[in-house]
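Incident log, structure service

09:12 report received: a user says their structure output differs between two submissions of the same chain.
09:20 pulled the input from the user's history:
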Amino acid sequence: MGAPKTRRMRRGRRAAAGWNGTAGARTARPVRKRGKHMTTEQLRHRMPPILKALKERSLRGRTPVEGLRRTECAYHGWDTVHADAASWEPFAPGDAFGGLEAHHCFKGTVTLPEASAGKRVVCLVSTGASDIWNNNNPQFLAYVDGRLVCGLDVNHNEFDLAACAVPGESHELALYVYCNTPARDVFLRVETAERDDDVTGLYYDLRAPYEVCALLADDDTRAIGIMKHLNRALNLLDLRDLDSGAFAQSVRDAREYLRTEFYDGFCGRTDATEACVGHTHIDVAWLWSLAQTREKAIRSFASVDYLMERYPEYTFMSSQPQLYDFVKRDCPALYERIRARVAQGRWEPEGGMWLEADCNMSSGESLVRQFLHGKRFFRDAFGRENRILWLPDAFGFSGALPQIMKQCGADYFMTTKLAWNDTDMMPHDVTHWRGIDGSEVLAYFISTKDYVKKPDKDPNPSFNTTYNGILAPRQVMGCWQRFQDKTLTDDVLQCYGYGDGGGGPTAEMLELQRRLAYGIPGAPRTRQSTSLAFFEELERRLAGQDVPCWCGEFYFEYHRGVFTTMARNKRYNRLAEFKNADAELFSALNLACGTAHAYPAEALAHNWELTLLNQFHDILPGSSIEKVYEDSMEQYEQVLASDASLISDAQNALAALVRADGDGVLVFNQLGFARDALVRVPVEAPVAGVLADGRPLPFRWADGELCFVAAELPAKGWRHYRFAGCASAPVPFAQVSEDGRRITTPFYEAELDACGAFIRLYDTAAQREVLKPGARGNVFQMFEDRPDNYDAWNLEQYYSEHMWELDGPAELSVEENSAVRCCVLVKRAFSRSAMEQRIVFYPHTRRIDFITHVDWHEEHALLKAAFPVDVYATRARYDIQFGSIERDTHRNTSWDAARFEVCAHKWADLSEAGYGVALLNDCKYGCDIHDGVMRLSLLRAPTHPNPNADRGAHTFTYALLPHEGDYRTGGVVREGYALNCPAYARPLAAQDGPLPESYSFVSVDAPGVVVEAVKRAEDGNGIIVRIYETWGMRTKVHVNFPLAPDARVTVCDCMENFSGVENADMTRVQDGWSFTMKPYEIKTLRIVNEKK
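09:34 re-ran on a clean worker, output below:
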């Protein structure tokens, strides 16, 4: 039984029958019904079915493509599309395919039918997949007649076969497809159809203003005006027969009305403008491997190029030269098409870095190299100088970045990620960003999100924004609504296009943009733009205004677990950074000393680029799938093996020329300050002693290994230490009880409990206890670690609610007590894991090392080492790139409380006036210091996206350094470097040679200035020396160089370009140069010997 007829339904029937002439006649014209006016609410009911009908009618004659053949192929097997398909298996409509990490190739012939003459014929490809982010759903490269046309995915599923069809013309169609499903359950539907451009155009002519109207309030005069125009356009349509000439003419009439009366007449009155930058964020690795990323880059870039052919106004921006390099190697023809688009000014290669790197854990020198390699690639490939650091998705930003940016020629910074903060909303979207040295750049936070019609009634308000913008009214309007600095500018930026897994903008977005560009009332007026054009215009608009300024780091209040997850990868990263630098240094020393050793520029560049690749913001943080880390470990091992070979070759070349007055050991110091270093070297014959200038040094020889303290080792150089003919037997420097629980050294009196934790640590020089009264130090704490979201990424504040101290009994023994080391070995088992730790005291340094090996098999657990120290300070200091920063140790504000886990590099320090304690490490980054408790995060055990994350064996060292004074006078910076950079030693027999027994290439007299890098200049002209000030104080520096009379020293920026300030403050002295350095300043010097 049907529903009763309502008055509205009966009135609708009468209106539908109200035609002039015979009912149903195709030539009839509609009669405009007089009566009640249309309302916006009624339009919301009337418009959707009409839009649906137009969308369906825009494609006619959908016909399945038959006769396809399929074959399986390998990763990067796209050339299979050019093979003869005669032997491939037939693939009929309805057949399925699939497989884990599977690739297939489909091929067939399409013949255009007679009815398609002169029409636009398209090919439609669908699989039924619905994951818009292109994780595991099928993704294609489409070829027509052997030429790559575009990429296809769930968001891009149509491409032209013929713009103006010729009946009977045949085209060879080939599809190279990737899928990742456990079964052969992917269905492929390939069709041809005729695309009616007039109907498609009308669909978007109506849809764009309708969506704006639907978001506005019903009584908004702008909505009412839009509604009136749309209603009149709908009344011009003849929808009785969608295949009729009357329908086609009515479509043209409606479009003409909308063009003249609405778009040209009514539009243009908007409050804001929006620069729209086409974009696709491609995670270089994440839920897919690097191998799949190479394919994603080709698919995405091919789709961009295809849409540029159809939309001449379309401009696109993409960062990450690494992706372009992949495409250049894998698909040269597409790369050349990209180069042509760049030359047209429509494709913008911008972004600054080699890829979108992690900016918390990457070293300062690594960040410089990200710019050096990235900017050089774009300059050489496209003739473009990057000025923007484009990092939409990285997990926080170091306070050192503004200076690095300025010195690398980048003036502007963009991200969206800080809008994901879980506690505090950033107060501005436009701000000057001032770094730790005072350098400033202009920062902009993209504000794209969905429009909220009634924000005051939103039950779940969110300030999250996205870098994967959808160019549609809801996000164009939302971008302006969410923007917080409307008093500064009425022009905002949106980057639009599907991303993370690539894809980019769609034809739908570009069609909507064409309409929004007219300035539909209620929505910002959009324009296609480049990112650089937007920033330059923004800077012009801000001139003379009081622009906010944010000082220091952009701490990300989310994803705090990434400082610890995948600890093995973080260890590899730290090693690779230092070994790359060492290989450069010793190769450069050969240049400086005039040996015949060739500088291995190509190998060094390759090692750096692999290191930079693995600093991508989902690789180094530990948030990718297991395959990514299998590949990463292989690449790191390649880097480290190559570096070891380069270092050995360079040192061999130097050692062959060093004068040695007797048999002994040649020790190389890669650090920029003189130091005493404990070294180990294989020496088969027993050694009676080791001398430095005739003075005996602490040593131990046993089982073919010599261990001694290399005293006064020159900075960035070497020293030869001779064996003594005879000497008194070495005496242990420490007193230790038989059970290893009580140790007395020249620096400390220490006592351990049965667990191996310190129950007392007395500093004999300062005459004070290091630990809080009654507290235990070096306590292992294990926490329940179950974040409610983003397992590998997040460490939630509530993790501390459930903690276990590993206080079970341990096995303690004295492993060594010699003239060079006192080592207590602690063995313990806990939960499902086991640990061995060597607690090491030394005679030459106050540092206490904890050399730790853990066989880790926990799940959803966090392991920390804790030291409750008897130091009171409301702020702690943390090592970061090219300097350090202070963070509060209390939780007074929400901003303080949100920093419950922070990133530090080589050390963290807590000091009160006159005394402090530093916690050092050789590969850890996560730590927290609150209420006098210093804790270092050691290991995590998430299960997603890598179910085996962190399980297995780990070796790492952390150290405690009690000191008088603060971190400056306590030697913390240098000890941090020393822990991470053991000196190199090799036996060297007596020989003659032109190089001296002791040599320093460069040194500085200021203890707060660090020599970070020594390398050959990128252009081959001279040697680059990079130094930085680390105490935060203005310092007069004397840099010593072994300069020839013809050598010239010039100040450069980090890109090795002359800085412009040149030698304004530099004074030549007898053995080097003197100049002033500002707090945390980076200074790069080029040394050129002009006498060739």
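09:41 both user submissions now match this output. Likely a transient worker issue. Closing.
09:42 reviewer note: The CA atoms of residues 288 and 451 lie 32 Å apart. The chain has 18 helices and 59 strands.
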